[in-house]
Design a protein that fits this description.
alpha/beta, six-stranded mixed beta sheet, elongated, disordered C terminus
Length: about 325
């Protein structure tokens, strides 16, 4: 009878799917940490993983492991090479969080453009009704949006942006299919940044920031930069400096190079930045969908009907995986 380790708090609907399978035995630990799941690895044949790391050492401590199911679409915290060395599939939840993350990206674009947090603070704490006359808010209608990484989430965001009469451009050198009508692909990232008023990132984890000081310097002073993808994709020091010098209108960050970000992170102090705690996909509806799909992948594996489109192959890891929906990491948010 296969033992399944559920590592991290899971929506009841996902637990119900696993519990309804009489051939499965569950070990359920709500704490999200590598240490908390170590005692269960020796007997686990399947692991449903939230946001903690699954290292090569942890895989080595799991002699019976047959499948790992990620509660999300990102997998940069998993040593996929260690799994592949033993032909252990790693599954993701596919498209269930793309719409939700795109909504959050749109929220941050709007909030940062309109300087929502500053207006809220002036109204709520200071009673500064005259802040309305600062005219620091800017519209998004008629602006140009550059979507970096045009996978599932990016395509959802493009449709939303079109409803605001925004011109949509996209940069994705690994895109195989053509863009939908109304979206203009740009071949060079720097050219795209020069013409962008709004930028939204939807790429997997990178070894270095895709938007460093040089790239940020290409944006105009009214531009807004949003990241709901992965921390480290933006040079946070360079971003904070650009904001402090008035070279950007604002930014919206759901992910950070170190999570949670420390008090010494300069973007935390910038009033032009809207911050959320890696929660782009963490709505009540999406959390349930992700839990159910993550649980279903385990059940399907043991029943011999696992969808191959939801299995990560190490040879495909990289920017091209974003086109298959992995640009958020569990919008990175699960």
């Amino acid at each position: 009878m296969p033992r399944v380790l559920v590592a991290g708090k899971l929506h009841d609907s996902g637990l119900d799917i696993l519990a309804s399978e009489p051939e499965l035995q569950l070990d359920y630990i709500e704490e999200i940490s590598t240490a908390s799941m170590e005692p269960y690895l020796e007997t686990a044949e399947a692991v449903l993983l939230r946001t903690q790391e699954l290292t090569a050492d942890s895989v080595g401590r799991s002699p019976k492991l047959k499948v790992v199911s990620r509660h999300g679409v990102g997998y940069d915290s998993v040593d996929v090479a260690a799994l592949n060395a033993r032909a252990i599939p790693l599954t993701i939840v596919g498209d269930v969080n793309a719409q939700t993350v795109a909504e959050h990206a749109m929220l941050l674009l709007l909030s940062a453009s309109r300087r929502l947090m500053s207006y809220d603070s002036a109204t709520r704490a200071n009673g500064d009704w005259n802040y309305r006359n600062s005219l620091s808010a800017r519209e998004i209608c008629g602006k140009t949006l550059l979507i970096i990484g045009f996978g599932r989430i990016g395509r959802h965001l493009a449709r939303m942006a079109a409803a605001f009469d925004i011109k949509v451009t996209a940069y994705d050198p690994f895109l195989n299919a053509g863009p939908p009508a109304g979206v203009t692909m740009v071949a060079d990232l720097h050219d795209g940044l020069k013409s962008a008023d709004l930028v939204s990132l939807h790429i997997p984890k990178t070894d270095r920031p895709i938007l460093g000081a040089d790239e940020i310097a290409l944006l105009n002073s009214n531009a807004v930069l949003v990241n709901t993808a992965r921390g480290g994709a933006i040079d946070e020091q360079a971003l904070a400096l650009a904001l402090s010098e008035g070279r950007l209108q604002g930014a919206g960050l759901d992910v950070f190079a170190a999570e949670p970000p420390g008090a010494d992170n300069p973007v935390i102090q910038r009033p032009e930045v809207v911050l959320t705690p890696h929660s782009a996909s963490m709505t009540a509806e999406c959390a349930e969908r992700m839990a159910m799909m993550a649980a279903k992948n385990i059940v399907d594996y043991f029943n011999g009907r696992l969808d191959p489109d939801l299995v990560v192959n190490a040879k495909q890891i990289g920017f091209d995986q974003a086109a298959n929906g992995a640009e958020i990491l569990d919008g990175g948010s699960a």
